Amino acid sequence: MKDPLEVLERRRRLLVAGDLAAFADLFAEDAVLEMPFAVDGFPARLEGQEAIREFSARADRMPVEITDLRTVQVHRTSDPEVVIIELVSVVRLTTTGATFEVPSVQVFRIRDGRIVLFRDYVGANSLPDLTAA
Predict the structure, then answer these.
(1) CA dist., res. 114 & res. 131, Å (int)
(2) Which parts of the sequence belong to the SnoaL-like domain (predicted)?
């Protein structure tokens, strides 16, 4: 699984399946995950696979379930390691059953089958208040 698009498809399947431990395994040991538009309770930057794993474990306890990640557009760049995707996350609140959609633009650098950089520009104004859920 060396092609960046294969890695991203595996990431999609793991997130929809709720397997956040395997999701964290997709990252390189020195990976960086950035969320420049992070909302309350979410870090703007995580450094290293273990930090990503710990955050994923905490996120797994939140009352949300990703039911789909719909890719709107994939942009390949002149750098074969860098892929930009536009997507919509479809999420269900497990406490109420209500669903919502969150658009985002995500930038990835994937090297040797591992995510080394994941920058998530999430449409934070589309998120409900998860602390109240």
Answers:
(1) 32
(2) 13-116
Give domain status of residue 133, yes or no: no
Domain count, the chain: 1
Q: What is the pLDDT of residues 53-76, one digit of tens each?
A: 999 998 878 888 999 999 999 999
Read off the CATH number of the domain in which 16 is found: 3.10.450.50
Strands 99-111 and 82-93: antiparallel
What's the pTM?
0.88
Q: What is the mean pLDDT of residues 24-50?
A: 92
131 belongs to a structural domain? no
Q: How many CB atoms lie within 10 A of CB 124?
A: 15
